[in-house]
Specification:
Chain lengths: ~350, ~200
């Protein structure tokens, strides 16, 4: 390069031109690589069916390990999952630093991990995204650490994947053309790419959307950007945006198996203790199904039995929208319900 | 609003002539909009490039380094740009690490602003200008980060689009670069502007 061209490159005009070009190229790459909208993950059909109807197994008992094993046996075993891959990611509910039934019990996670390993899954991990590295006060693992979940699971051979809910590199943008809101959802890349996702919800009331279980828990599967947009545009949950969008968040994850720990439930209010919330112990049930809409339909009935302030019509629109999108069956008559004791 | 209303504002922001009829080269050397645009663009470029290297720390470091390079080169001080880039990279990376343990890694922004202020102050001749820039750079940088984040989030909220909302921190980086560079141009103009051609460079 000649002297004149060198000086031209580093004079103001050359520098600004170079900077503008570099910005354009990098912005185009960023848009194409990180911000492009993709289809939701292609989920295989529900592997846990009987005579064409989704299976819903309800296990009653008091011995957690025995209940998990009996429930999985009643589902027909976990072999259909092992055909999808050798690694599974658990999704728990860790919305705040309060113990079960506000959050998923680590003993329950370990009990399910044992059964998955017994079925041939080589590695199981727990995914959670409840914080950011931008703040020293709320790093991604802070709730798991305070609850002792991080330590228990790590010692139990289930690594914890605590991810930043603000980091734009952690997400992929997905969209289902069937969504009435034609906007993509930023779902965590790990969940989008995981061959097997097993959801481990708890059963709770929720002050804005009335109820949280298998569907609503996927608020924690998407970027804080999506959570904030829903909360700020529907601050009291009355416009229906939150009821609708939580279904889209669940659609973006589509776990292959849901195992609900309903040994106890949180009634009257939620999603945390306080504000009139009451822990109802002695429910003593686990609910297993590959159909998260059927799971919520059943667990809503369970809630209605223990909470006179809750009625099924409170989540009717959620279930209807989820069923319309093909996430599962809201009508339990269309589901094969198996009730057992362990 | 008429041209008579905007004329003094335009003369102030984009001056060509001084009252005496001479071209005010000190003003010309730091056109406000050009500097603000350079800060905006280069910090955005740095933020995006930092994403290829990792998460918050490299993104923050690359954005503030790009701003420092822009400031140095537009001041025609390539050695100051290099010195500033290296020192700001080290300091901002350290500040992010410290901030992740104490308070917040957003502390890196005012810290980087301070380093830019100190290194960039050598571009000015007058002591008062230097002091003003050392004080103003971290303040303007911090205001820029907050304003940029807020602006992007409000736009995202209006559009109800998480692709935009996910770029909230990019908005902060852009706000930092834009206000620091605009601040350098304005401070140079207000406090160093009466100097002869190129003196402020």
């Amino acid at each position: 390069m000649s002297d004149s061209s060198n000086s031209r490159l580093f004079d103001r005009r050359g520098f600004l031109g170079l900077g503008a070009g570099a910005l354009a190229v990098s912005a185009a790459f960023e848009w194409g690589h990180n911000l492009a909208t993709r289809a939701c993950k292609s989920a295989s059909p529900n592997p846990f069916v009987a005579a064409g109807r989704p299976l819903l197994v309800i296990v009653e008992g008091e011995d957690l390990h025995a209940m998990v094993r009996a429930g999985i046996d009643a589902l027909g075993g976990l072999e259909p999952l092992t055909k999808l891959g050798s690694e599974a990611i658990f999704r728990g509910n860790y919305v705040m630093s309060q113990p079960y039934p506000v959050t998923t019990d680590p003993e329950f996670v370990l009990a399910v991990a044992v059964e998955l390993k017994r079925a041939g899954v080589i590695k199981t991990s727990l995914f959670d995204s409840s914080g950011t590295r931008l703040s020293a006060g709320i790093p991604p693992e802070h709730i798991l650490r305070r609850l002792g979940v991080l330590e228990k699971l790590t010692q139990g051979g289930v690594p914890v994947l605590a991810r930043d809910f603000l980091d734009p590199d952690e997400f992929v943008f997905v969209q289902n053309p069937a969504w009435p809101i034609a906007k993509p959802v930023a779902v965590h890349r790990l969940l989008h790419e995981a061959p097997i996702v097993v959801s481990l919800p708890v059963v709770k009331r929720h002050q804005w959307v009335n109820f949280t279980c298998a569907l609503k828990m996927h608020f924690g599967s998407v970027a804080m950007a999506d959570r904030m947009l829903v909360h700020t545009n529907d601050s009291d949950g009355r416009s229906g945006l939150m009821q609708q969008r939580l279904i889209h968040f669940a659609d973006a994850v589509r776990p292959q198996l849901n195992i609900v720990d309903a040994r106890a439930i949180l009634a009257r209010s939620g999603p945390g203790l306080g504000g009139g919330a009451e822990v109802v112990p002695g429910v003593n049930r686990l609910i297993l199904s590959g159909d998260m809409v059927a799971v919520d339909a059943y667990c809503a009935r369970l809630m209605a039995q223990h909470d006179e302030t809750f009625t099924l019509d409170m989540i009717a629109s959620q279930l209807k929208h989820a069923a319309a999108l093909g996430l599962g069956k809201a009508d339990l008559d269309a589901v094969k319900v198996v009730e057992i004791r362990a | 609003m008429h041209a008579s209303f905007w004329a003094p504002i335009g003369d102030f922001l984009l001056p060509v002539k001084v009252p005496g009829g001479e071209t005010q080269q000190g003003y010309r050397s730091r056109p406000l909009l050009l500097w603000a645009a350079a800060g905006l663009g280069l910090s955005a470029f740095g933020w995006i490039v930092g994403g290829f290297l990792g998460s918050w720390a490299p993104r923050t470091a690359c954005a503030v380094v790009a701003t420092a390079i822009a400031l140095g080169l537009l001041n025609r001080q390539p050695r100051a740009a290099l010195l500033g880039a290296v020192s700001i990279a080290v300091v901002s990376l350290a500040a992010v690490q410290v901030g992740q343990s104490f308070l917040t890694s957003l502390l890196a922004w005012p810290v980087a602003g301070l380093v830019i202020g100190v290194v960039g102050a050598f571009a000015f001749r007058r002591r008062r200008t230097r002091i003003a820039f050392i004080v103003a750079a971290p303040l303007l940088g911090s205001v820029g980060v907050v304003a940029g984040m807020l602006a992007v989030f409000l736009i995202a909220r209006g559009l109800n689009d998480s692709r935009v909302a996910a770029q909230t921190m990019l908005g902060g980086a852009v706000g930092f670069g834009m206000l620091v560079m605009a601040g350098a141009a304005l401070i140079g103009r207000w406090l160093d502007g009466g100097r002869a051609a190129g003196a402020a460079s």
